[in-house]
Automatic annotation (TrEMBL):
Gene3D superfamilies: 1.10.1660.10. Residues 1-71 form the HTH merR-type domain. Keywords: Activator, DNA-binding, Mercuric resistance, Mercury, Metal-binding, Repressor, Transcription, Transcription regulation. This is Mercuric resistance operon regulatory protein. Signal peptide: none annotated. GO terms for biological process: response to mercury ion. PROSITE patterns: HTH_MERR_2. SMART domains: HTH_MERR. One of its GO terms (molecular function) is mercury ion binding. It holds the Pfam family MerR_1. InterPro entries: DNA-bd_dom_put_sf, MerR, MerR-type_HTH_dom, MerR_fam. Mediates the mercuric-dependent induction of mercury resistance operon. In the absence of mercury MerR represses transcription by binding tightly to the mer operator region; when mercury is present the dimeric complex binds a single ion and becomes a potent transcriptional activator, while remaining bound to the mer site.
Length: 128
């Protein structure tokens, strides 16, 4: 027996509208319907939605997730496409790391310039 949309939503901790949205985008398979029109999802859709959530947490866009899932589902994406996608994503991540390192350095420098025992109006950061 499959899962109704509410059951899928509660097992994956997403709301029903998110599931419908993923369905419209083709990220999850279109479910079968009962005689009354209720959606019935296969049990493995739970794993698929959780995988999508994990990729989103890692910073992937839904468009990027669709490309990755396309390899598994539709075989439309060529190996070269995945290679290019991977190279681009690595570049984006490296750029984010560089930006975060700059921000960290700036905050460390800021922390050093702001002694704890000064009154706010004496703070060298606010009164250069």
């Amino acid at each position: 027996m499959g899962l109704r949309i509410g059951q899928l939503a509660s097992r994956t901790y997403v709301n029903k509208e998110t599931i419908r949205y993923y369905e419209r985008l083709g990220l999850i398979p279109i479910p079968s319907r009962t005689a009354k029109g209720y959606r019935i999802y296969k049990a493995q859709t739970v794993d698929r939605v959780n995988f999508i959530k994990k990729l989103k947490r890692l910073g992937f866009t839904l468009n990027e997730i669709d490309k990755l899932l396309g390899v598994v589902d539709r075989y439309e994406v060529k190996c070269r496409d995945i290679y290019d996608f991977t190279v681009n994503k690595i570049g984006e991540i490296q750029h984010k790391i560089e930006e975060l390192n700059k921000l960290e350095k700036m905050l460390v420098d800021l922390k050093k310039r702001c002694p704890e025992n000064k009154e706010i109006y004496e703070c060298p950061l606010l009164n250069p």
